[in-house]
Design a protein that fits this description.
Oligomer: single chain
Number of strands: 5
Mean pLDDT: 86
Structural class: mainly alpha
Number of helices: 21
Order of helices and strands: HHHHHHHHHHHHHHHHHHHHHEEEEE
Length: 570
């Protein structure tokens, strides 16, 4: 954890200084007071900028110590000329009692995140392809037709790029994989502002959304902090995008040029992290129409070009890795490349994703033979109780809200907040899209949790305004209840027999975070070359390299140089 602490500090300095630099270049205004939200947004923008630049660079060069030197040099230039850290004052104008609660709460959250990020990787997909994809980025430029040797290596994601940028493998110790933990930390700071506002004064709908998402993040996402996987970052960026849009409606900032640019960048980046977040585009539509309605063409062009700059390198990498602009899912390609993955393999991969996300314990043939009612019932019964609770809330709460329309004050309240009701509809659309495309819970956490947060954030301020409730008592109950849920989840996995093992685990990560495991491999043959193949659960992890799950005798190297890539020969 000690090494990880310094890594967090270094990444914050880099991302914050890059964020302030790009805020200047894009003319994105920061908050007048340097609070948790402005710091978090600046760091998120820096992450997006780094990822986008890295994706462009990776088309021609590897992402290793050479790129890190460039990153550090640009950061140092920003620090010297822009002085981004001089105005940071997190707890400005806080009362003494609030200051104590906020400081202790954030410190405890930081320690928990640090430990979770230091622990072993629990995402099975990391062993299957995340770690190897990172190592390909560290070792080579984008390889043409890389998806031919393993389809999952064609699952291009900007978050994999972020992890490659900050893996520090060139130090020779290990390839670090802490960026999801870092994202959870800065998002905790972002959501913490909502908690601070609710604690100190009458909170807005957005403040309640942030507070609820803060708790949900610790309950449902923290176990993935040590994985470079894309599911949790995608969920987090969906939540931040929704919160930004809600705040713009609440504060009347729908014509604010800088905020619209940032929202468009966020929405675009969501797509590059994970394609299943595509319904997040609905969040940007009202602001696009607003710009068209008021003929703010300059604003619209700036936002569109910023979004295009984020998406372009993502699509170019897709073309190189798989031969398609969008992969997996689409079989259209504007250019026929000799390394393009065959369309029948792409179609089968899409079917495999849906099957495995729905009924992984059943055969694909059995799943395809089931009716909608049969597979959806079996899918629900296979979920754990916490995940069933998420699904039930998403199903029941819309009917509860509709039943309240018999109350006049509720109708007036809804009428006042119609724009936010639209955003709720966009989030519900995301849940529906997720369910019918690939309903693994971790794939849809962003929309599932955001929808629940908006439901409750709508209801709580209304009920507080209608029924006299002591706000401090309500917040105390909320904090204690949230802590109880978090502690319950952590302690359920702790028994007396495993207590000693957990103490040993804590000792093991005090200095350094856990490395990737090393599983056995054996040599397997492709058409004109050999490679290592996994022996256990189709997992190669990070080392040895290069490694794939299995060999296809129809795949060949395009030349004697591995950088020329691979192609499929029927």
């Amino acid at each position: 954890m000690i090494i990880l602490l310094f890594a967090f500090i270094y990444v914050f300095i880099i991302t914050y200084s890059w964020g302030r630099l790009f805020q200047r270049l894009l003319r994105i205004e920061t908050a007048k007071e340097s609070n948790f939200t402005s710091i978090s947004i600046t760091s998120v923008l820096g992450l997006i900028a780094l990822s986008t630049v890295g994706s462009f660079v990776s088309l021609a060069w590897r992402i290793n110590w050479e790129f890190q030197v460039i990153v550090f040099a640009i950061s140092l230039t920003s620090i010297i000329f822009i002085k981004p850290f001089k105005e940071i004052n997190i707890f400005k104008s806080e009362t003494r009692s609030n200051l104590l609660v906020l400081t202790v709460s954030f410190f405890l959250a930081f320690v928990v995140i640090l430990y979770a990020t230091s622990s072993s990787v629990k995402n099975p997909d990391t062993g299957i392809y995340h770690a190897q994809a990172i190592r390909w980025i560290e070792s080579y430029p984008a390889i043409p037709g890389l998806a031919n040797i393993h389809q999952r290596l064609g699952y291009n994601s900007s978050w994999i790029m972020v992890n490659a940028i900050f893996s520090f493998s060139f130090l020779g110790k290990q390839s670090f994989h802490f960026m999801t933990g870092y994202l959870i930390l800065i998002t905790t700071a972002y959501f913490f502002d909502g908690f601070k506002n609710v604690l100190g004064k009458s909170g807005s709908i957005n403040d309640y959304v942030k507070t609820i998402l803060l708790v949900c993040m610790f309950v449902f996402m923290l176990d993935q902090a040590s994985s470079p996987g894309t599911d949790i970052p995608a969920a987090i960026f969906v939540g931040i995008s929704m919160c930004e849009a809600i705040e713009m409606f609440e504060k009347g900032d729908t014509h604010n040029n800088s905020r619209i640019i940032f929202l468009m960048i966020l929405v675009s980046y969501c797509l590059t992290v994970k394609l299943s977040t595509v319904p997040i585009i609905l969040v940007a539509i009202p602001f696009i129409f607003s710009s068209l309605k008021y003929r703010q063409t300059k604003q619209l062009w700036s936002a569109s070009l910023s979004a295009l700059a984020v998406i372009t390198p993502f699509m170019l990498r897709n073309m190189v890795l798989s031969g398609y602009l969008v992969f997996p899912g689409m079989t259209f390609s504007p250019i026929i490349l000799d390394w393009r993955l065959p369309t029948e393999i792409v179609q089968r991969e899409s079917k495999v994703i849906k099957w495995f996300a729905t009924l992984p314990n059943s055969s694909m043939e059995r799943y395809e033979s089931l009716s909608f009612r049969a597979w959806s019932r079996e899918w629900f019964l296979n979920l754990n109780y916490m995940h069933r609770f998420l699904i039930c809330i998403n199903i029941v709460f819309p009917f509860f809200m509709l039943s309240l329309f018999t109350v006049e004050s509720w109708r007036a309240y809804i009428k006042k907040n119609i724009p936010i009701l639209y955003l709720l509809g966009a989030s519900i659309s995301g849940v529906i899209f997720w369910f019918f495309s690939a309903p693994a819970i971790r794939f849809g956490l962003g929309f599932l949790l955001t929808t629940i947060a908006i439901y409750f954030a709508f209801f709580i301020p209304w009920i507080i305004g209608k029924i006299p409730i002591n706000r401090k008592l309500l917040m105390t109950c909320f904090i204690l209840g949230s802590l109880s849920v978090i502690l319950l989840i952590f302690t359920r996995s702790i028994s007396l027999s495993s207590f000693e093992r957990r103490i040993t685990s804590i000792k093991a990560v005090i200095i350094s975070p856990r490395d990737y495991p090393v599983w056995s491999t054996s040599i397997c043959e492709f058409k004109n070359f050999e490679m290592l193949c996994a022996n256990e659960y189709n997992s190669c992890w990070y080392d040895p390299f290069p490694c794939v799950t299995s060999a296809d005798p129809n795949v060949e190297m395009r030349s004697a140089d591995i950088q020329d890539g691979f192609r499929y020969i029927p």
